Amino acid sequence: MSALASRPFGRRPAAAPAQDRDERLAQRAARALAGARATAGMRCSTSVSTGSTSGHVIPKDRPLRSEAFRRVVASLPCAWCGIAGFSQHAHENEGKGARLKVDDRRGMPLCCVRPGIEGCHQRFDQTRLVPGGRQAHIELGRTLSQRTRAQVLDAGLWPANVPLWKEAP
């Protein structure tokens, strides 16, 4: 009888763990936290000429998140077509990316998709609301969000716990 015949499928018996499961999980969690802390405040800059990254620490922007502000904006009529009752808070397209949103104060009310009607929000996000492509939508977003902030302030609806937006000089 061969050595393989005495074990099913030729597997070796599992070695006894060097440490208990809780200790291994605690060590794994500590390694994950250490790695997360090391990269939390970093953004690598890339050289255009060489394509290499510098590894210099560039602080990440911390966009404001405010449910209260988003609800106020969504209560306004659509900033593009003017329909009331179907608005959603839509973020500007400049600075957005995969799972990244800009500051909530850089938003505007745009209407949602309804049965048989494609909403302005969807068309804005897909750069089909106005001609001119992405750049035209970035400029439109800046204009509409600035107008929305003024409208919220003038109506006295700005939430008390949300800092005022400071316009760039």
Could you explain how this protein is built, in words?
The chain is mostly helical. The chain has a domain at 67-154: 2-Layer Sandwich (Herpes Virus-1). It is 33% helix and 6% strand. The chain is built from four helices and two strands; from the N terminus they run ααββαα. A two-stranded antiparallel sheet has the order 1-2. The chain is elongated, with a radius of gyration of 26 Å. The model has no long low-confidence stretch (mean pLDDT 81).
Key terms for this structure?
single chain, 169 residues, mainly alpha, Herpes Virus-1, two-stranded antiparallel sheet, 4 helices, 2 strands, 33% helix, elongated
Q: Assign the CATH topology of the domain at 67-154.
A: Herpes Virus-1
Compute the average pLDDT: 81
Beta-strand content estimate: 5-15%
Tell me about the biggest sheet? Answer: 2 strands, antiparallel
Instruction: Give the terminus-to-terminus CA distance.
Output: 86 Å
What's the number of helices? Answer: 4
User: What is the overall shape?
Assistant: elongated
**Helix and strand string, N-terminal first?**
HHEEHH
